[in-house]
Fold these 4 entries.
Entry 1:
Amino acid sequence: MANEEKIKSLCDKGKELLKNEDYNGTIAVCTEAISFDEFVEGIHFVYYLRGLAYQNKSDYSNSIEDFTEGLDLLVTTDGDEQAEFYRARAESYFCAGEYDNSIADCNEAITLMSDENDDLGNIYYLRARNQLRKGNKNESVADYRKAVELGAEDVEEEFGIDDAVEQKANPQAASAASSKKFNIIGAVICGVLGIFTLGVIAAVIGAVAGWFVGGIIGKKLAAR
């Protein structure tokens, strides 16, 4: 009983330290609590706290280990609590570049989490980011839209997803934008080459030709 009370006290201290962004302090008190090597109610949460502290220190290997240990010790049937462990581990997997593992944990979290949970949109957004890193544009766009629908936070800040969504939703506009970009590139390249080889008249002709050729290339790339 004495050890159980000590562990709970350390857990409360760890929560406060984590809130204050003292990650080394959080790791220290959680490690002390774990050192008692006793299974007490809530011990899984100690691993969760230490996992978050490691995650904030960019120590993703140790954070993944702690979230995994916490999941193994989790005895609750509360789907939201289980989902939070998968979400947290998915974040570490993502940061570590292990996108397939992150997607798998996102899938588990989405399955377990209740529809009323405010974090559900954030999990879809995390999965969208993983899919984008893997080059799966369609899957990324679908998850991104779902995240927005569910009110996920800060979804506009991820570079690249907005462009992918726009291209998926409005392919004609995306094609026109890409075509114009390559129009300019082609015109500049051919114009410069013309000046250095055949003179001003050739440069003008080359620029016009480059404009049309560049537009064709841009449309081809946008259609992919």
Entry 2:
Amino acid sequence: MATAAPIKLEPLEKNILRKILNARNAAGNDLKIRSQIVLAAAEKLTNIQIQEQYGIEAHRVATWRNRFHEHHELWKLLDPNLRPKMNEKLIRSWLADSVECRRESAERRNSHSTLPTLHS
């Protein structure tokens, strides 16, 4: 059995996810569910516990936990002076379900190259 991806959030990130979760916009229901998954994962709940507690399908929990983790970890690897500032738009983009996001993720997984480094 695979180990669930660990999610460690800073207070700002938690606040952004809570804001998305509590938004009154019904059109953002998928983002709310994904935010709930990430927040619960950050509280160290297992995928099964999240499934049972929130009634979210197990495959959906695993998918969004892993996708968020992948984006978050890549963002943390970037030079702090060069990476985009943590904000709601950035987190929403990580929670978006777009073909482009999935294509980019697949390309990163299949790539044998590493992140480029900048030299002075």
Entry 3:
Amino acid sequence: MSAAVSVRVPASSANLGPGFDCFAAALGLFLELDVSEADRFELVSELDVPRERSNLAVAAFERLRPAEGHRFEIRSQIPLSGGLGSSAAAVVAGLLAAQRLSGAPAEVLELATELEGHPDNVAAALLGGVVVCADGEPHRFEMPEGVEALLVVPQGAVQTARARAVLPAQVPLADAVYNTAHGALLMLGLATGEHQLVARGLGDRLHQPYRAHLYPRSAELVAHAAALARSARRSRAPGRPCSCGSSGPRGSPSPRRSVSTLPGGRRCWPRRSSAAAPRCAGARSSSAPLRRPARASRSTAGGARRGSRRRA
């Protein structure tokens, strides 16, 4: 029986509200990586990703162990270049697989942060739940009951380097104070389950206004989130459908049944998915015999594969 390992890593949403580069949450959409011994290097995937060693998961794997003589199979529910941490999930998966196969301890979070350039997405992918990254160390807690993610994924991608290039080096003091206050409201609301505080705490002046021209439709949704929520309540859809989250019991009617009209007559169909709920476990890895893995399927949040959790 040849050595093999399977790793399951969640998607993540970072820059939550005012928490630029420090607030993130894991989501119940998963990347799965199976690595097994083989005669030569091979990467198999139905995804539109590189099949060479430049692949993010393989490059991360090679920080701890050579990829030669291994077969990699990648499946993912996470949209590529959609702002849901697909690259962070790939990096974490590669590092965890190499760590498990080598049996040697490794600073996975530190290495993943080095490869990604910032800690928020990789910390959420590795640890699950909600994370606050400060002074190089993530602090984790569970998302409260009754909060689910509502995802609006753009069709066109904006490169991370371009999105960061438009941010100013300095901001007005009033904007810094605004973000400090609203960041506190958001974390207090998430920690206590007070949904009204969560809604108030999502305001931001550090990055969203400067990037609005790069994401005009997303900016429009955010600007009119309150109007969309009122429309959803009138049509008995779950409360507060917007691009960041909604409150209401699982199994409620889908917000797709609530067709909201934006200024100018444009219409919006919010989409909520129980597979994108932030109450989600972090990355899991397990040893497995050499086999052909089953195809990935949508999973409710927290339904991570059984195995030992690896934390840095």
Entry 4:
Amino acid sequence: MLLRFVRETSTFLVVVLLVIIPAGCTSSSIVSTGNVKTLKVALVVSHSQFCDIDANINHFEQFIKRASQQGARLICFPEMALTSCVMDPAMFDCAEKIPGPSTDRLAQLAGDYNLYISMGTTEKDDTGKCYITQFLCGPNGYIGKYRKHHQAPGGASLGLAEGDSFPVFDIDGFTLGFNICFDGRSWDTIELMKKAGVDIIHHPHGNLLDLGADAEEWTRGKLYYLPARAIYSRSYILVNNSAGDTISPIGTSSFCGGAVIIDPLGQAIVRTTQKDRSEMMVFATLIKPVSALIPQGEVKMNLRYPSSHHPWP
């Protein structure tokens, strides 16, 4: 399996080419790639200014442009990246309808750079209810949205509403679903992703320093529980967080930074390990079906003894 891994920050760019072959196998023992589909993704760890949507979109365009130049077809931003994931009542003042002005601007960028954009924001519906929402735009315009299903205590105390549906979306033959931050602490959300047969779950966060002092520690914490969800759902989980410090009326909110991509076998194929909280972007090329990740001998053994293995999709 060939994976391309790129890490970017404002000061340097590192490109690493990895050829990963399971221990004890030769390249000839890997399942033929004749029917394999690939999707290159970019996962962003970004800093946001509180409720300054225009400034944040202008800032995010540099990531979108770089992702396009590197051949990514999907770029994923953190939870509430457009408004900043700060639990300040002032967040309601900048909440927008979706679709609306921000989706129009992101759809334009998706068309200009020929990729799909997953973006987090604060949404206000026609009744005045507000949600933490992740929306998706593509080269042909706005596609759809997912509203966070389980609010964390801070969001619940502010009266943020919870979503009640789990839409999925097609991106170049890959099925994409969403879990947002605290959704990942409940098993019902991964059950629904498994039932929907998703290939990818974008799992954006807005975690503060109580869950990690830096990008390395934060991603290490995510590896405590998310690999089991990836294995159970047989999907890639793309996990990213906001970076740096954001000032709002209630003070300074400090985010851990960090990103990790977990494959359907529970392996962290890309993980930020730096001991800081800076912005960055990581890349990986995802493949399907899952059986393409498995040595042929193990696939044959699974067919011979189906009760001993979870069937490969």
